[in-house]
User: Fold SET domain-containing protein from Rhizopogon vesiculosus.
Amino acid sequence: MEPIDGIMIDKRVESVFAEVLAEFRDWKVKYSKHLLRPLSIGKRVPSIPTSSDSSNIDGDSDTEQRLVQQVTVTSYSEDGTPASTSTISLQVIRAEVLEPHEPYESCAPISRNVFKGDDDDRMAFIPFADDATFDHVDHTLCYSSLAWQEDYDPDLEVISLEAAYRLHTVHHLPYEDIDSTGVLPFKLFSSPRKPGLFTLSRRRDLLIWKGTTIPHSYEFPSSFPSPNNLRRRLERINALFCPSLNCIEPLCTVHVEFNPMPPPRKPTIRLSELLNRVERPCEAGCFLQIGAVDLPPQWSEDDISSLKTILDIEPDMVPCDHAELCLKPCHEVLYYRKLLYPDPDELQIEYPNEEIKGKPSSLEFRDLETSFCANSQIQQGHFKELEVKKSKWGLGVFLLEPAKLGDLIVEYVGELIYEETFDSRGEVAGHRGRSYVFGLNEALSLDSSYMGNPSRFVDHVGTSSASGETQCNCRALVRLVNGEHRIGIFAVKNMEAGTEVLIDYGSAFFTR
Ligand SMILES: C[S@@+](CC[C@H](N)C(=O)[O-])C[C@H]1O[C@@H](n2cnc3c(N)ncnc32)[C@H](O)[C@@H]1O
Assistant:
């Protein structure tokens, strides 16, 4: 690290951070006192009289009697003392007594399963906090800590930003150098998996405090990599795509593994052989015409790094093609290619095709479990028109169009969770009396408590005690779709529009 004014960069970052921290704390104490003072003197809210204070019945219509109440409004001055008082008339409307809605759980709407794995190990809040019949202690044991007792202090975000700004504008330190000291409590620049403070500051409003010197219109540098840095740009774009070969969705919610850059490939064709493949010059000044150059062409570090990135991805291209990607003459590309692979004909060349000799040339896919038709119905998302409305058991799902035996009614979507989270959420679901979890496979369950579609309201019907036959008109079936387990709710009989969709939850559901 380069010394600046005799002080190492990290010492400078530490001292500016400490300076801003002290200023912020000083401001916060005064600001908090300023806010609290009026509260300790008097209430700021208008005083609303009770109905017994009603002063006037206005209007003489038989059908509509309007109750008018006089309300006293007090205004307070900055120091909290009453400044003025006035009286206004408010009309009181007597609302009809409303029927309470059936208890139900709301959720975020999703059209595809979302991988959750496990809930945060920190308990975010105490469910049923005022309900003595819920076993809070037992539920708390599902977590390792309590979120509200952790040290995270959002004030440190504005303090870090201010310190970074001062270090950059007053002390002339590049933001990259400030970030690499690791002294500030937050990273300024984003990494592929975690947004940095600069990005966060653009996404939401941070606290405005008196000591800030950051102009309102100031923009911190973007976390987007420089257009000259090909590798970082590719890494960023690559991370958007799902690593599952069956999945074509960018920003896929199901396969949340990070998509790393492919490992660098080694050349499989000798350079002399590659050069022999070029039959005619690609342009005036092609290496075929002017031969090898001895003096290094004037390339920046970014130019060389871009060629290295391209060679890592596709080393078996002729220099004329690489030249098009690098926007450089091919004889210059050839110079740096030789520099990057010093003795190309002596390289230990890998021949991947020989390595897999004896293995089958293509993978064989066999879906032993399911019919093509059922899977493709889920894949194509052809669902029935549905309506969620009051049913015998809270809310239920009703068909708005007829359905035939075998039709896919809807896909059951939700969060994909592991067993531990199934248990902790199960306690809450059991207590509220509404559960939305389906077992999907040995590892995962599908919970639509917090995210789902109308399928989460499908109710249960068991077997008739008279006939011993199931009364359900649909079945929930796990299907393997493109290597992924998904749940479809399928009709097991023909149904008219208006029919409630009913499945059999299974004998274990109501005994859990
Ligand atoms: C997947 S939710 C179905 C939607 C639910 N009716 C609602 O209003 O949210 C499952 C919950 O519905 C209720 N439920 C569904 N069918 C039922 C039945 N046949 N008997 C009793 N409760 C039922 C239970 O509370 C169950 O935990």
Notes: The two ends are 62 Å apart (CA to CA).
